[in-house]
Amino acid sequence: MNERLVTIPLPAVYPGSGAALATYAYITTCVDMTIIHISAAPDVDDTGLTLAIEDDAASCITAFACDDADVPGEFSSTAVGGTSDPVFVAAGSVLSFIAANAANATQIVGTITALVGEVFA
Questions:
Q1: How far is CA 10 from each of CA 27, 53, 69, 120, rounded to the nearest angstrom?
Q2: Element (H, E) at 3
Q3: How far, in Å, CA of 113 to CA of 105, rounded?
Q4: What are the pLDDT digits (tens) for 36-62?
Q5: Is 78 in a helix, a strand, or coil?
Q6: What's the first-to-final CA gap in the chain, in angstroms?
Q7: Looking at the predicted structure, is the pLDDT value of residue 18 above 50?
Q8: Quick check: helix, strand or coil at residue 44?
């Protein structure tokens, strides 16, 4: 096997406050990868804030809580002891990051951990 573990930083800044972050960032993948973990938190506590990811406009990671500035929300696959299936993303896919229910947060930061070269799907 020739897999590599990669971590992709996930900064995202929304220019205004008091409004939903909505779709705030896009990443185009250059290689096949399998997402095994995501950790993300807002700049301030924001009750009800969630984060979801779409692959070429199709849901691939359903919304998870991302509302506590001190405790990052997480998507954890079975590959790292979580309960969700790892998510395969083909090279050339456009990943979009959707934050919903933001009232106070203007920024979300975190990381995506993925395997490149190993396919679980």
A1: 10, 12, 15, 23
A2: none
A3: 23
A4: 999 999 989 999 999 999 999 899 999
A5: helix
A6: 16
A7: no
A8: coil
- Does pLDDT of 19 surpass 90? no
Residue the block writes with tokens 């301030």:
44
pLDDT of residue 90: 95
Distance CA 118, CA 121 (A): 9
DSSP 8-state code for residue 19: S
What is the pTM for the complete model shown? 0.85
Q: Which amino acid is at 26?
A: Y
For 38, other C-beta atoms within 10 Å of its C-beta total 26
Taken in order of first residue, the domains within the chain and their CATH numbers are 4-116 (2.60.120)
Residue bearing tokens 């396919």? 119
Q: Are 34 and 119 in contact (CB under 8 A)?
A: yes
> How remote is the C-alpha of 22 from its chain's centroid?
13
Does residue 78 surpass a pLDDT of 90?
A: yes
